[in-house]
């Protein structure tokens, strides 16, 4: 029997009995692992995955049906309030268009319209008002436009509370278009109206913090420049040269960008006091550049919406009124309030879907206290100390593990912070994932029932961790194999003493030995085997990856995760075996740890590189495997 | 751009210097209300030529106020340039005297005297350098030298446009008057810029 040189002691030098602690940790880890692997197994099995997809699809269909039913109830209720004759165009649960005529609030039989073209024929006799649901407006805009042009019918779209909003024709860049007139000065394209839910969300505080104003004002117009600075300070960028314009647009990343400038034809133009042109930039180019930076573009120039297919004013506007409108608008809670104040101050505005596209991205880029906390607060320092001191490693580490496990699973909200994700971001991501799972539009994310909210609050973070784990593993195995080994090193350094001591305790319990099997100081027992496991795991990852790619096997995310766990466990077993075979190995490894690490990585890359030489190495590798010979 | 939009520097100056005249012009010519009140329309309007009476009256007032504004700026510029020249001269003189003092102190081996004279020399040289920097480079386009050059050009332009205006009035040529207004607008734009750089009221 070989005797090992070093013993495992705590800060006071007394041996630490770890059995109970290890058993507690093991039990918790087992439960966590079981939950994780049950979930993965469910996805791995094609039949189970199919069942899961069925459930998600059913959820999505049920959600859609519920929304249609709600819309139809609202529109019928609105029609009943109308005096005289009215008609209602809605979509039934099966997704078929149906026309219901009402006379003095009494509904007649519904007529099913199999094709959108039937709308014109079916509504031929309709007089008075035609009420439509938001879904009909979004999907059958062209038919409704033809209806307004040919039959001079009054169309209104209903909201969830049965209020009605007029739908009219308005002149735009491409000719007359159907618009939803929310107020005298604010009109929406049908597409934007369908997604208006996004505008009612409380994003404005974040968007205001991401506001940048590009003011196309010549340097000689000091009066105007002074007013801009007075209102927006460092948030305003003055531009009167082409190069400045290009640079300013490039700087705009995930922001709410308001461009204020003089418009001639289809371009922003800056003129000197002697009328010479200093800058001329096509409006569409400005719009595209801002969109490329994932920013929201609010273009404020005279009747922009009439000149290019974008949101903007539809009449002549004044720069100082724009300043007033912006100052008042950004104090609102929602983008809708912002646009309403802007329109009331500046003049009629037309809103298309271009404004909506990046609202969430820009607002999400705002930094909050919780984000700063996630980037480096005290919790991270407690849970992930950069270096554990040898004297306190064991107790602190166990305490950390014991604290981290329940925090991770029960208080997922707080536990996600060490991963660099703030609760605010977690909640938004959970809602977005849920919305996409049940087939809801982004604009409907906020419309959650109480039960949905409670469930998402309770289980959302844990589900997010599982999803993230799968994705992270996928990224790890495909792109950053070596950093995986580097990350494993500190982990192993922390875990190894616990594992070795656990083995000691188990040996003692089963009566095989009264002397510790593994005698090691914290430093030597932790670092040496840890390094060995990392190096071995890195080499095994390299070999496996090469073999998989040589045989053109592409593992799924779940298989990749399983493979990593398997290889890591195999490395750990090999290390334990080697440590028992060569007792002084840990000591040598500890002394030569840096050289070993470098050699391990060089070995990995050598395997990887040699893998590219087809025949020579492939033949060697194939000898390791059982490959049927042709001869 | 409308008929009057590019003339905003003229309207800004009139609003600042002659609020009474501005109010009177608004009453007389309601079509000038927006620009005279300082509005900046961000698009094209019907680009019709201002009529003779409007253009003539605007030109007279603009020329008068442009001269007054320009004189004010030139006076401030001259004062600043003189101040900077004196600073340089003083700094040079102190530097010269204290250099002699350093030599004397070095010879005399008095450590305190050496330190004080060296410090005075250093400060004097620094003052000279700062004054040169302010005059030549500070603010780029806003340096005193650049502003002086720019204002000299504006004086010449203003004289030329005044002569042309008299001729245009004599020949009853409204087009020339309007083009003269554009030139005056350019001049006043530069003057306004200089005023902002010098910290004067705009």
Helix content of chain A: 55-70%
User: Would you identify the regions of chain B where 5 or more consecutive residues have pLDDT less than 50?
Assistant: none
Would you tell me the overall average pLDDT of chain A?
71
| Cα gyration radius of chain A (Å) | 33 Å
**Largest sheet report of chain A:** 10 strands, mixed
Low-pLDDT segments, ≥5 res of chain A: 1-49, 376-393, 474-482, 520-525, 611-618, 620-631
Q: DSSP strand (E) fraction of chain A?
A: 5-15%
Distance between the termini of chain B: 24 Å
Class by SSE composition of chain B: mainly alpha
Quaternary class: heterodimer
Number of helices of chain B: 7
**How many helices of chain A in DSSP terms?**
27
Number of strands of chain A: 17
* Broad shape of chain A: globular
- Could you state the order of secondary-structure elements of chain B as H and E? HHHHHHH
Classify the beta-strand content of chain B into a percent band. Answer: under 5%
- Calculate the mean pLDDT score of chain B and round it: 82
- Give me the Rg of chain B, rounded: 25 Å
Structural class of chain A: alpha/beta
Profile the largest sheet of chain B: none
How far the N terminus sits from the C terminus of chain A, by CA atoms, comes to: 49 Å
Descriptive notes:
The complex is a heterodimer of chains A (631) and B (202). With 631 residues, chain A is of the alpha/beta class. Chain A is 57% helix and 14% strand. Chain A contains 27 helices and 17 strands. In chain A, the strands form three sheets. In chain A, strands 3-2-1-4-5-6-7-8-17-16 form a ten-stranded mixed beta sheet. In chain A, helix 8 (222-232) runs parallel beside helix 12, helix 12 (319-329) packs antiparallel against helix 13 and helix 20 packs across helix 21. The longest helix of chain A is centred in the first third of the chain and has 36 residues, at 46-81. Chain A is globular, with a radius of gyration of 33 Å. Mean pLDDT of chain A is 71; it is low at 1-49, 376-393, 474-482, 520-525, 611-618 and 620-631. Chain B has 202 residues and is an all-alpha fold. Chain B has seven helices and no strands. Chain B is elongated, with a radius of gyration of 25 Å. Chain B starts with 7 loop residues before the first helix and ends with a helix. At the A-B interface, helix 8, strand 12 and helix 12 of A face helix 1 and helix 7 of B.
